[in-house]
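User: Second chain of the day. Same drill as before.
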Amino acid sequence: MREMITMVVVLTVLSTFSGGVLASLKNATAARIEVQQLKFVKGPAIKIILKGASNDPIADRFTIKDGDTERKFFVGKFDGKANTVAFESYGKGYGGDVGLMVGVNIEDDTIVGVGVTTHMETPGLGATAKTNPDFTSQFKGLSIKEALKITKDGGKVNALSGATITSRAVCVAATGAGNIYRKLKPQLVEKLKEFNQ
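Assistant: Same format as last time:
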């Protein structure tokens, strides 16, 4: 009985120590991980969407609490005004979630551009949603307030050949971004005033 108690105590101490070390490592690397994501995952899409901005959208960013979720918004200044934000939304694709960065002009509620950030889609088919500018350029100028669909579903977006599910996922992500935008627009307007001073 004594051996069993000793073993339980030793295992408890080791588990507690290991958990503490892992938690410390996670906290210590969180900032580095965020920098790497901004540089290599989200950054390229943000730079394409907000091309021509007079500021650095990656440096000019803010967070808004949306229920339990913290959403990051990247600011684009055009003609001296901070009037555009980019933020990420997700849609369910063929291989998993498709991350989509969506840029929106808050003055006229139009999409200025979209870019796929993350995906697990089939190479050569769904994966081209990230690299095919003809596909992503279809979203430019569309209203962020309307549900976006592929033409097969009665919408305005032509699906990628052989990748209907991925194309739908991108549309779902863009529509989801619209829902987020409508809910948070008053806060976005207030936050952007800080960048216009």
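Residues 46-195 form one domain.

User: Great, on to the next one.
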